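Aim 2 progress update. The chain analyzed this quarter is reproduced below.
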Amino acid sequence: SERARESSRERPRELKSSSAQGFKSSRAHEPQSELKSAEAPQRAELKADRWYCTLFAFPCRVCSGPAMADQERFADEAEDGQLVLGPGPPYVFRVGMPGRTAPPLVRDVLWQLGWLEHPLHSERLSSSSPCPQADPKSTWHLWWKGSRFRPNEIAEAHPWQRMNHLPKTTSIAFKDNLARNVRTLRVIHGAVYDIVPQAFILPNEHTKLANEFEAQAEEAKAKDKRKPIWICKPSDSSQGRGIFLFEDLSQLRFDSSSVVQRYLDNPLLIGGYKLDIRVYAVVTSLRPLTVYMYRDGLARFGTEKYSLDQISNPFVHLTNTSINKHNPSLEDNKDGVGPGCKWTLGQLRSWFLENGIDDRMLWRRISQVVMLTCLPLGVESPYVPAEPCFELLGIDIFIDADLRPWLLEVNSAPALGLDCDTDYTVKVPLFRDLMRLLGFGSQEDEREGEDGE
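Predicted structure tokens:
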């Protein structure tokens, strides 16, 4: 927590001042005055200095989420009774499904906030679990599940209940669907959708890839330059599994639907190490499409210095923690980065400030990339009530040497494991703030109103 406070104090002044705007939202097709009066009461319980909003001329809302929270302050507020969990009986959560469970972070944080666990799947709890059990006859307020919800499960939910997955998010969570949707939207909206590298979906576009590959190789040869490097990613994999780089088409091997992209070979380097960032966003409504963007996140580094002479070395070119944690040099004190392979975004902002880099436009562009990425959800998804479902997304963004952000992929089930101090600094406050964003604290009134009818 001390590191969190220091990181927060070191943030550039411009980023702090933006949060002072308070919570605002905008929809292009409605008058601002109507929005202001309609939405202010719903968000009155949220602290204004913890939210800010970036406005765009699109029929959706992109709202930037809370700043990094102080874990000790949350504990003090809970102890003093200042942390309002809502009237009525304690909230009840349900995790997983038979044979599966939720990340320990979910159960631990909810327990710390005074929640009870529904005993439906209590046989999977260890005897040492601190979670108190709810009455078997009680109903749940939150259902946190790793897999998707069935349509009947969504239809049967009450308005005051929350489920952590929206339908049809595979339209952006699968790499082939994401590439296809971004390509379509670029045809419709133009260059604003130049947010992903050139991509081909295999096996259907293998011939197009081969033709483009040969054309670019010939062009490079004519200019006496190195042939372009490409990267292949399985469409529905995660944690860097199955990803590889290649320079020759004969090196391309795939046994499932995959996406091949032009490799971005001019990354922003810190101490000679490549990085990307994990941005967290929450979609709380599809109509209107409403996206909240969290103020903090992760900067993830490769654990060996960047070089195009080692394209087969995953520790150089891939920043996935699940890969780099196996590098024996992970905890070495790396130049400019230090031990480990993660920073908070607060640390990254401090690095920009210390090196005299004005990063304000970068973060505006990142907000725009998040918005453009989420638009297909509002276009392709069927109508579902806004209340029962939400989606926590982990959006991976590459930053090139010119400080231009590029969309890499979207994770509909971002990892909530706590592997290091940086994870604790970011993910624990993230989940606590997510519970506040979902409105727990006033939902019991909704439940009593429904039962009264």
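The radius of gyration is 23 Å. Confidence is low (pLDDT under 50) at residues 3-89, 122-128, 441-449. These observations will guide the mutagenesis experiments scheduled for the next reporting period.
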